[in-house]
Amino acid sequence: MEDFGxxxxxxxxxxxxxxxxxxxxxxxxxxxxxxxxxxLGLSRTEIEGHPVQDxxxxxxxxxxxxxxxxxxxxSGRLAFLRNDGQALELVLRAQPMPSGRGExxxxxxxxxxxxxTRSEGGQSxxxxxxTQCPVxxxxxxxxxxxxxxxxxxxxxxxxxxxELRGRPVSDVFSAxxxxxxxxxxxQVIETGEPxxxxxxxxxxxxxxxxxxxxxxxxxxxxxxxLCGAIVTTYESSEQYWGRRRWSLLNDAxxxxxxxxxxxxxxxxxxxxxxxxxxxxxxxxLLDSVLQGTDPALRHDHSPLALRRVAQxxxxxxxxxxxxxxxxxxxxxxxxxxxxxxxxxxxxxARAGDPAWERWLANDSVRRARVHxxxxxxxxxxxxxxxxxxxxxxxxxxxxHPEHPFDRDDAVLVEELAARAAVSIDxxxxxxxxxxxxxTLQHNLLPQRLREQPAVEFASRYLPADSPLGVGGDWFDVIxxxxxxxxxxxxxxxxxxxxxxxxxxxxxxxxxTLADVDLSPDExxxxxxxxxxxxxxxxxxxxGQGIDGDVGATCMYAVYDPVSLHCSIARAGHPxxxxxxxxxxxxxxxxxxxxxxxxxxLPFECAEFxxxxxxxxxxxTDGLIESRAHDISVGLDTLREAxxxxxxxxxxxxxxxxxALVPKAPDDDVALLLARTRAFDGDHxxxxxxxxxxxxxxxxxxxxxRQLTAWRLSDLEFTTELVVSELVTNAIRYGAPPIRLxxxxxxxxxIEVTDGxxxxxxxxxxxxxxxxxxxxxxxxxxxxxxxxxxxxxxxTIWAELSLSQ
Length: 804
Fold this sequence. Notes:
By secondary structure, this protein is α+β, with helices and mostly antiparallel strands. Strands 13-12-11-16-15-14 form a 6-stranded antiparallel beta sheet, sandwiched between helices. Strands 2-1-5-4-3 form a 5-stranded antiparallel beta sheet, covered by helices on one side. A hairpin with a 4-residue loop joins β1 and β2 (about 30). The radius of gyration is 45 Å and the shape is elongated. The model is unreliable at about 1-15, about 115-120, about 540-550 and about 765-770 (pLDDT under 50).
């Protein structure tokens, strides 16, 4: 066993005089020896946490600053200022202490000039300084045995240096929590490199766990041989909690507000704080805020309604929770929640405080839960954003009873609450706008489309699950004259309320224009003019188009079940899909046309015949485009889904949505499927007429016989009058060829077509006029009537109700 009396520990400890201070790299005092009070008259509490430079004259402070910057040992005379303001010259020796973490520590020793280097008892001042150092210092030999222990360490271990010398470190630090400390100590002995190590545990002589910093450095003799390690230990609570606070702020910047969901944002806040700063965290919002009403607080002392939106516990399952997430509670005036909301300031309460007892006095369940889990302090902070009170963030602590919540914690939590409140407020605003936009869009979209004789149809609409809000997708099925039907799908650029409102205006415009019986290309031209006007109205600048405030794409198709003819035009919209009766799927080449709002290029109409039983699929780009795949993959998947056989259009719609649309789509999705029908001879009768007035009488007779065959004899008189007036007008004012067509549907449709593009006008005949009453009579007898233009003339039509 090594002779500790002859070991070079005196040389190893020869780093200080009788008066000792420990500082960080900048000279801020960490430890202040009690003997230092004698020359300067300053106690530990008066100087710790302040720079040593504050005790020096301006010139000497600058000298010391240069010494610290060089990071090398130094000795010299400096003028210190006593607490009575008088100057006292002392010899200062600055010794840098290595740190494995790269942070420098300084041991500063002070002595009066001329003092001997060895005391009367034969002990050097260096030995005295080691013994009197205000922080715990221990020197271990290469076998990890105690070699030297200063007075602070002896007090900590409740043993004298003689009792500790020679004992292995594992005798004193035997608990598993010290394994890392012993590992780092052994590492310094083996490598000769200094190490900085921090641990959170209790040490001998201290009951509660605390953060401790250990600076472990090698000790060498005069020949450079490694003969041990010196460990300087000090409590690092301030640095430890300071780092945790800054870490919390950094975590909050990246973790809180990752979505626009209120509950998720609140949960992110609670999880960021737990367990770094608290053992149980709750986030409660005012019920009025969640309902979107005025969040003004009442001052009549009535209970305050708060709803739990998030909570997090250091214990799995949050067993200490009194209120479940989603539940509402009424908080009394004594509650910290109510008081912090009323004052707008953080509220601190500790076990035993009057405020703490008042809070628990009338709540037996909460009082039992607090006592069961040993909570000792609480901190309640209001959540405020843009001048509006949203709710309260509450923290409870049961571990570390030696560290109840204090004002430093309150300042940190207030900063976290302020950051989180902005995110929660944004989420609330988004949620309200999203709900409003959904409601608006739901009301603007067709709720229950009337069945059409021309087609069987099914549809689906799915709003986007996007922070940008719902979009402006829409679809419609519009009945036209002559049993025809219009199929419409559109997509307004943008998201949110503006997109939904614009969608409603465009859908109403399409219905109005469809009622005029415009061709698809002409209708899109009129709709394009409307979008341009909307852009001008929204920002006062024309020509913004799709890049401005308003823009849209649209597809408009018209199908005639009598002629089986279909005409389609599109404005920047995806191609339609057609499934023929033999399940062949095709995407016909329809001229693209520019998106609505550009007003540059004309729209073109594609026309083709569709056999009865064909399927026409119209959709928005959200169906085939996705972040997960490009549009070609979407079209291939749509082709496959359309070609599969299904019992009904509804099941086919479901299959298409399942195959192409994720559960949370990035964009709105609208889908409209229409299966064509055909009217046979039992529903349609047609006559080609000569351009001769004598043809009117036999034409009336033909119409009467057809009504008899259809068992519609009750309509014979009215039909004869309408046919007579319309055919007479075509012969007198129109041009050949002239054709009469009767269609039996939900109403009786009478159509007269001629080769003239001149449209008739309804007018009121004077008392002595011989003509001008024909169309007026038709308008009075018919349920509806109108004119539509074709490429070769016009058609005047009238509908008679079958219930007449």
